[in-house]
Amino acid sequence: MKATESIARNFHRAASILDLNDAARQRLLTPYREVKVECPLVRDDGSAATYVGYRVQHDNARGPMKGGIRYHPHAGEDEVTALATAMTWKTAVAGLPYGGAKGGIAVDPSTLSIAELERLTRVFIQRLHDVIGPNIDIPGPDMGTSAAVMGWMADEYAKYHGWTPGVVTGKPIELGGSAGRQSATGRGLVLGAECLFEDEHRMVADFTYAIQGFGNVGMWTARLIHERGGRIMAVSDVTGAIRNPHGLDVGALIEYTRRNGSIQGFPEADPFTGADLLAESVDVLIPAALGGVITRENAHRIRARYILEGANGPTEADADEVLSSQGVVVLPDIFANVGGVTVSYFEWVQNHQNYYWEEDRVNGELKRFIQRAWRDLRATANELACDLRTAAYVLAIRRVWQATQQRGS
Ligand code: NAD
Questions:
Q1: For residue 1, what pLDDT band results from cuts at 50, 70 and 90?
Q2: Continuous H helices in 262-387
Q3: At what angle do helices 388-407 and 22-29 cross, to 10 degrees?
Q4: Are residues 140 and 190 in the same domain?
Q5: If you write DSSP's letter for every residue of 99-131 in order, what string do you get?
Q6: What is the band of 30 on the pLDDT scale with cuts at 50, 70, 90?
């Protein structure tokens, strides 16, 4: 199923509950602007390569558009459009004064040297600088991009518009980044899980976990769950999966991964096939890598009781029915991974104020925002007697449609 098709299905289910007519649906689904650019690169050896970059700006009714930039070989029009749409709903669920956007370059960053990565990033911003800005569209990091990449983006933008740190978020601290941004998505996920579990009088420490993806989101999530007493039984990354029946030593695994670039060969665990991670016998499954990994075909293999969607769009829309028939509770991406964009919002606020917060304040504000979003989400789910994904979409679409009407045409 195409990523846009999956997200449109979720949208239409909620739009029907809200009784939105076809014109309203079309208005809400059609992207504001789609940009596709050529990114030529001179490789270190003097040879030439050309990559394709995308930025889809989906909606700005509630504020400037916000969303990450992904460097991944599969980044393409459909994926970026779906992710941009998801950002509109995500910022609305989180109650942030933003719309949604997303971008990407179809490139495997591991095939580029640091110098090549920097040149490619600068070319991308040369092509985009006219359509982004702190009050227009604010990129941030996503898969395959990092604080360093965001720093280069801010610097390239400055060549055309002067130093404007609020044009991108996820920057290095020295360039106006926020304390707590690196851990924010994982922290938000764990705070969201705490809200969910608390409703059932349970806590993070009561459960076992498997995590797909051991990058920024997967690693921080693992660390924070481990700190709260939860046991991480298995993790995977692009190279495969590992498990330990007694629980993984998360500190040692993070250290090992930082040194070796992947989880492969971690001595205190048994390797197994990455695709089998979804079927691990654990209480909680956390997809924190790619989209579209849980499908109608493989959903029946999932044995977990809860799925916490760290990744964007990990569950295809028609897999939800299978999961729900198995009694699996899904904490949907547009709530579960809002921590990153929430702290990006704090970064942007700090850039505007030119006043920087301590990490404790960032983490405290994040907790407040997640708990508020959870209360709104839970209230909507109770009001409609529906699952959390449908409730999240209803909550988001209601807010965006209201703003659209209030702004007029
Ligand atoms: P990252 O690039 O830091 O890490 C990605 C991880 O996924 C790596 O460990 C990689 O090896 C692994 N991976 C790639 N292909 C895989 C596969 N086929 N099977 C298993 N693992 C695989 O990326 P990230 O920033 O951690 O983002 C992960 C997901 O979370 C993405 O879907 C992203 O859109 C979403 N997300 C990220 C943020 C953020 O702040 N970084 C915020 C919200 C959502």
A1: confident
A2: 319-325, 333-336, 338-353, 359-384
A3: 90
A4: no
A5: EEEEEEES--GGGS-HHHHHHHHHHHHHHHGGG
A6: very high
Q: Say how many Å lie between the CA of residue 290 and the centre of ligand 1.
A: 6
| Distance, CA of 369 to CA of 86 (rounded, Å) | 19
**345: in domain:** no
For 351-401, what is each residue's pLDDT tens digit? 999 999 999 999 999 999 999 999 999 999 999 999 999 999 999 999 999
What are 286's two structure tokens?
Answer: 């956390």
Centre of ligand 1 from the C-alpha of residue 272, in Å: 19
Q: Decide whether any atom of ligand 1 lies within 6 Å of the 337 Cβ.
A: yes
Tokens of 140: 């941030």
Q: Which amino acids are annotated catalytic?
A: 102
Parent domain of 126: 31-164
Of the residues 85, 105, 142, which should be mutated to test ligand 1's pocket, given the most ligand atoms within 8 Å of the CB? 142
Rounded to the nearest angstrom, the distance between the alpha carbon of 237 and the centre of ligand 1 is 9
Indicate whether residue 290 lines ligand 1 (CB < 6 A).
yes
Q: Which of 79, 145, 168, 237 to mutate to test the pocket of ligand 1 (most atoms within 8 A of CB)?
A: 237
pLDDT tens for residues 192-251?
Answer: 999 999 999 999 999 999 999 999 999 999 999 999 999 999 999 999 999 999 999 999
Q: Is residue 290 part of a domain?
A: yes
Output the CA 376–ligand 1 centroid distance in Å.
27
Query: Would 143 be classed as within a structural domain?
Result: yes
